[in-house]
Design brief:
Helix content is 22%, strand content 30%. By secondary structure, the protein is of the alpha/beta class. Strands 10-9-8-7-11-12-15 form a seven-stranded mixed beta sheet, with helices on both faces. It has a six-stranded antiparallel beta sheet with strand order 4-3-6-1-2-5. Strand 1 and strand 2 form a beta hairpin. Helix 5 packs parallel to helix 6. The N and C termini lie far apart (48 Å). The mean pLDDT is 94. Bound molecules: flavin-adenine dinucleotide and FE2/S2 (inorganic) cluster. The site of flavin-adenine dinucleotide (FAD) has 21 residues, from strand 4, strand 5 and helix 2.
């Protein structure tokens, strides 16, 4: 007799293990599956997402922000914007949540071996990039990739996420971290200005390189212009789409864009792929 198919909407139970306060409205949640086999065996690609449920409040979609090279836990970096995210922000270590996933296509890292990687992120756009650069920078993977350039900015110094990890990126081999904030304060000795301006200044070479960018739409618009001015072809530029989702598995049609389901065909797309969609992306 064949086993009944597992209900794909049934989340696996997990517990919050640690909470990192990133900014006044963003927290990173480290979660561990309750089932030991799942905890040790859970794998994913950087760039994939999951559905996280807070019992009694609902379910929402989040990029996995930890790296697949880190085992035993997964992390999500979550901005408080509404019902589910506010409920999540109320939870602390030991609280039980549900997780479905991983879903979607991640960054096509295997096809980038030997290339230089340029990450351009703004605000809470960094989680889907952090999963990728942490995987690339993991000791077992570092030799497979060229130079890593991280260009990151936020509105103010208080809006920067993962500040506790910056020193590690500064020390990493063949890696440069460039930061900016729209407006600094008395504590800020770094650069002021928008991310696209910093990209123009850093001017990474497109030779044997790919660029990944995630951030607010206005930033993406100018970053894409900047990258193409630097000579990056559409096939060398990648981003992820965060269309509102419900099922995450290609069933409900909520994330449909011109015949594509972002949850299964994405969320990662090259600019060349996006330009084939008859919508304004
Ligand atoms: C593939 C994907 C990856 C994502 N990754 C992350 C992540 O890593 N971290 C993170 O903080 N958020 C992420 N999001 C957004 C996150 O799913 C929403 O913020 C969350 O669903 C809001 O749930 P809520 O119940 O708290 O808000 P609701 O009460 O449902 O809504 C509150 C407000 O937020 C708006 N909103 C909700 N979802 C979206 C959305 N997808 N895009 C724009 N506005 C929205 C609503 O219109 C409303 O104004 C991702 C979304 C997708 C589709
Ligand atoms: S979220 Fe249901 S089809 Fe994509």
């Amino acid at each position: 007799m064949t086993e009944p198919a597992r209900n794909p909407y049934l989340p696996a139970l997990a517990r919050i293990d640690q909470v990192f306060d990133e900014t006044y409205d963003i927290k990173t949640f480290r979660m561990v599956f309750e089932d030991e086999a799942l905890r040790e065996g859970f794998t994913y690609e950087s760039g994939q997402f999951a559905e996280v449920s807070v019992f009694g409040h609902g379910e929402a979609t989040f990029d996995i922000s930890s790296s697949p090279s880190q085992r035993g836990f997964i992390e999500f970096t979550i901005k408080k914007v509404g019902k589910v995210t506010t409920a999540l922000h109320e939870l602390g270590p030991g609280s039980q949540v549900g997780i479905r996933g991983p879903y979607g296509h991640g960054w096509p890292l295997a096809s980038w071996e030997g290339k230089d990687l340029v990450f351009v992120g703004g605000g809470v756009g960094l989680p889907p990039l952090r999963t990728c650069f942490n995987e690339v920078l993991a000791p077992e993977n570092r030799a497979r990739f060229g130079a890593v350039t991280i260009i990151y900015g936020a509105r103010s110094p208080q809006d920067l996420v993962y500040t506790r990890e910056f020193e590690q990126y500064r020390q990493a081999e063949r890696t440069v971290l460039h930061l900016t904030v729209d407006k600094g304060d008395e504590s800020w000795t770094g650069r002021e200005g928008f991310v696209p301006q910093l990209l123009d200044e850093v001017a990474p070479s497109p030779d044997n390189a790919v660029a990944l960018t995630v951030g607010p739409p206005i930033m993406i618009k100018f970053v894409l212009q900047g990258l193409s001015k630097l000579g990056f072809a559409d096939e060398q530029i990648f981003t992820n789409l965060e269309n509102r989702m419900k099922c995450g598995i290609g069933k409900c049609g909520r994330c449909n864009v011109a015949g594509k389901f972002v949850c299964v065909d994405g969320p990662v797309f090259s600019l060349a792929q996006l330009k084939q969609l008859p919508t304004d992306y």
